[in-house]
Amino acid sequence: MTVSSPFLGFPTHLVDGRRPCAVIFGAGHGSTYPGSNSSGYTLAANAIRVASQDDAALVEHWDFDLGGPLFDNKPICCIDAGDIPTIMHDNAGNRARIEAKTREILALPAVPILIGGDDSVPIPFFSGFAEHGPVWILQIDAHIDWRDEVQGERYGYSNPMRRASEMQHVAGIVQVGMRSVGSARLAELEAARHYGSRIVTAREIHSQGVEAALKHIPEGARVIVTLDCDGIDPSIMPGVASRTPGGLTYTQAIDLISGLGRRARIAGFDIVELYPPADIDNLSALTAARLLVNVIGTIARQV
Questions:
Q1: Is residue 121 part of a domain?
Q2: Residue 114: beta bridge partners?
Q3: pLDDT in tens, 252-295
Q4: The three-state (H, E, C) secondary structure of 50-98, written as one string
Q5: Looking at the 3D structure of the chain, how many domains does it have?
Q6: Is 239 inside a domain boundary?
Q7: 248-to-225, 241, 269, 289 alpha-carbon distances in Å
Q8: Is 209 domain-assigned?
Q9: Which CATH number does the domain housing residue 135 bear?
Q10: In this structure, how many other beta carbons lie within 10 angstroms of the beta carbon of residue 212?
């Protein structure tokens, strides 16, 4: 794959003393389980950037998802800072670098947007908000990710919501899109419920609409959105390691994002678990890029 330009052709920094409203950065590796190979996920950030390039010249056009141009007729306020260096199996080092970058962006202040590797990278991303709480977490995922440890590793892709529940600055968790099986033995489900996590299945979203999830978010709360690509239906997001039918539609996902923007504030966003080797005709990367556009547009409107 050709190394891409920044997402949507965004600048890598702003001039004239302007601060960004949001900063995109990529992280290929987080905490990889022993004996596992997470290298396929390192292709995700570049795939999303490549998929955005056809629209790079159209940033000022009317976007029907957003009801207006991406930046709402204001100057571009999002930058793409590129990828931070990560090394497979350097788990502690990767976590430290992701957390440090998140803190750096929050100090600007700006909204950090992480386009990542597997679902372990959100753990240090969440940790980076320790001095910027309280925050809520809205997870979009097929799985609850509440395992305490796997093969002795407590910070891998099955552990992020369990670790988030232990962070003092996390005020609450809403989990959306759960279906089928995975990361949800009875013990994990009971632990999530004991914590107070609000679990909203994909079927509930299909039958009741996105309000089934949004009603659990306090009005005015600061919210980190963590989007595992397998939370989206594989008919439009086939490029994942665990395809599970019945996921959220594109419209439901962007309705969640826009609804959250009206009810609360997006304080951070990550999109993970895109697995380009399993993609079909770059459909997943295109869908991921469009989801990211909606997030940026929502952030631009809350400045």
A1: yes
A2: 25, 270
A3: 999 999 999 999 999 999 999 999 999 999 999 999 999 999 99
A4: HHHHHHHHHCCCCECCCCECCCCCCCCCEEEEEECCCCCCCHHHHHHHH
A5: 1
A6: yes
A7: 15, 17, 18, 16
A8: yes
A9: 3.40.800.10
A10: 17
